[in-house]
Amino acid sequence: MEMRAIKFTLNGKPCEAVVKPWRTLLEMLREDLYLTGPKEGCGEGECGSCTVIMGGKTVNSCLVLAVEADNQEILTIEGLSDGEHLHPIQAAFVNKSGMQCGFCTPGMIMSAKVLLEKTPRPSEAEIKEGIAGNFCRCTGYTKIIESIQAASETGKGGK
Amino acid sequence: MEEYSVIGKRIPRVDGRVKSTGEAKYAADLAMPGMLWCKILRSPYAHARILHIDTSRAERLPGVKAVCTGKDFKGWRWGWMPQTRDEAPLAVDKVRYLAEAVAAVAAVDEDTAEEATDLIKVEYEELPGVFDAEASMQAGAPQIHDYAKGNLSFEFHMDFGDVDKAFRESDLVHEDRFETGRVITGYLEPPAAVALWDSSGITIWAAKQSPYFVYRHLADCFKMPLNKVRVVQPFIGGGFGGTKNDSLAGDFCSVLFSKMTGKPVKFIYSMKEVLMTCRRRHNMIVYNKMGMKKDGTLTAMQSRVIADGGAYTAIGPLTMYLTGSLSTLPYKLPNFRHDAYRIFTNNPISAAMRGHGVTHTRFAAELQMEMMAEQLGIDPLEIRLKNAITAPHETINQVKVHSAGLVEGLKVLAETDNWKNRAGRRKVEGPWSRGVGISGTSYLSGARQRGHQSCAAVVRLCEDGTVDYLTGATDCGQGSDTVLVQIIAEELGLSVECIDIKRVDTATTPCDAGSYGSRVTVLAGEAAKKAAQDLKGQLAKVAAQGWQVAAEKIVFKDRRVFVQGSPEKAMSFDKLAKTACYSGSGAVMIGRGYSDYGLDAYDFEKGSGMPGTSFSFTSQLTDVDVDMETGFVKCKEMIIAHDCGTPLNPINVEAQNQGGAIQGMGQVMYEQFVMKRGQTMNPSLADYKMPLALDIPRIEVIDIITHDPAGPYGAKEASEGSHVSTPPSVAIAIHDATGIWFKEQPITPEKIALALQRKKEKV
Q1: Which of A101, A128, A134, A145 to mutate to test the interface with B (most CBs of B within 10 A)?
Q2: What ipTM was assigned to the predicted interfaces of this complex?
Q3: Rg for chain B, CA atoms, rounded
Q4: pLDDT digits over B372-386, tens only?
Q5: From start to end of A42-119, where are the E strands?
Q6: A10 and A55: one domain?
Q7: Residue contact A105–B19, C-beta within 8 A
Q8: Where are the domains of chain B?
Q9: Domain presence at residue A158
């Protein structure tokens, strides 16, 4: 089948790619663009490990075709920190031990980012709802919720 | 207690930063030039003879570089004990469970490899299967292995005291049947590896929580000396026992393909493969009999345990041993008999999982004790306090307990509002009924297997005063890297930033038994402490020589070194490091150490003696709300009073308790594989339900501080106790809310609603 050329913004920078029409956004990010922060857990949109932000919304990048990224703005975990300077959500996850094995963390942080953009001071229930699409088997979620609360207190979690 | 600088502090994880930025690389993130992809063909039958395999069409597909079948491994098999080596990398003559690996393909990309597996033609002769452990024990059941008559995989018989006499003399004897579920460990990172065979031997970058198992398996399978086998650890996306403690078809096939093609070969299992074929928890039936005096004193317990082992042995014998050897904790039990049977079936393989073995029998015993207390009119806390052991204690099967915080933990629960005002809290709005349940359980630290037990550490001093720390222990998420670095830092008077822990590489790190059975903090921790002390001793000599004092007088603190009582004789640690490294022709400053806790006598066959180094104690209270119309259960609150000895890092201890409890909550409330004639009917995370953030209760973790002599700084396990205490406390809380005993896990809304309906009809 014909290859498709697409253009998009990736982590703030313009990006071009030529992809097979059936290639997923996750495959393109991981295998073509070497951004291995987003993970593949289940490959069917259940675990949330592949969560990235597309057009300001979280998506399961394993369920989105790469061609759908055409003309979109994509943000992955790699685009969150400013050089050595961690994003406030990342810093909160580090300080509050919001991760154990870390496999769900990139997706979890992206979900937290969109949550805090929309709801800068979320309640505990809103945080739980905001990460309801992300499995974590290690932490039992409490430390993740505490991390997101701590990030929201900086007032910069959605930035 | 001694005043520490780093130990016992709430220090953030040393791997927090790389995990939060996406920098941490897991096995699936690795790639090499020219790399091939390996895919596995799996059996469509649960029990069948393999008559013929035709790989010719697959071999002809453009892009396919190699194909292999079971015969290519020349009859090699592996297993936990010499007499149980029954599993081959790929099935040879017979498949024994559905989706067992039969053949494999290496191709230029993943899609081609997958397409090629469809072109392999396998002729099978389907055999009658058996999918229920008790049915499998019956005469005439299909035989799964020639060597295991009656499908008996392994059995244990433990008998201590005089159980029959004790039952005769008891005031109350209860007999019940309990069942624990079929659940998956649930790591989110599917197994993956990149394997390379070249002139230096085998190198494999593999997702393993115990890399030295694979190291030995690969050496044995491919007849390679151990110094030609390198297992390198990327970051590991969760373990929880079983699969990542063992080798997989994918590991062996990738290595073989690399040998055949000279190219690096990668595989990643799909989540469907994980859920259909990876090792899962044993489903167990526990027939339990307990005796008691009128005042609630336990007199005897007898358990008959039947476990569905699935198609192969794996680590199953140890599982069965643990179902019994720890039944004499945490309550005084003068008479105990245990008969455990692990039975082969044509289901996927059962193996270890967090709370290994203990979770099954402790669930049964906790519920039964509570049922009997109810019958005798004894308060649930009272009966536990009456029977709880206190240290020092030696059980009837010679398990020696040197520290025990169960009584203290139960007393903490007794003082909570949840417990004191439970009658007042019962009334809830609408159809909801609130229940509260408590449990008191124990788990081991420093679990023992039959072979290699110790951990080792090497601490290398760099001339600028920083330290490289080599350990064979793997942090698969539990936080051990952080704790181990804290230990090195504490001993050398440094901060954690000065220490760099290297990831496991069997070519450079010292051999280690692995990450299982809550052993890393205790045993790798002891090794780290000794290695750091060894280096400190060498450095102290250098300093002492300069100042003309005794080496014992040298103190290491806050990245400084000084002479006790003479603060003017001081220098920075960095300066001493430089002096030491440059002394003579250039000294090499290396500290080394290995653990020797946990070598006390034990008898694996009889189930007596020390199965580990020490024992944690968990007292847990759980509040649930049950919808009396739909049977839906909402877990509202958990209070976990856990005795992990001395917490070395309280954040990690909390995190482990929380994670273990939620995993246990999933297991007792809803997680289960739906099986139909050996087929897993729900092999996706959409249909196999694990807890989400929305499902979790408020969890309070309270540290009960004890000091165990067999642990660095008095530490014991912190990661499995709450996984054992949660299922009974939830089940007891559901009973409190509904008045019904549910003895089979998982306690689903369906079961509750039906039981409530039946109860209504009876009235």
Answers
A1: A101
A2: 0.98
A3: 27
A4: 999 999 999 999 999
A5: 51-54, 57-60, 73-75
A6: yes
A7: yes
A8: 16-23+454-594, 31-127+190-237+242-277, 280-448+602-762
A9: no
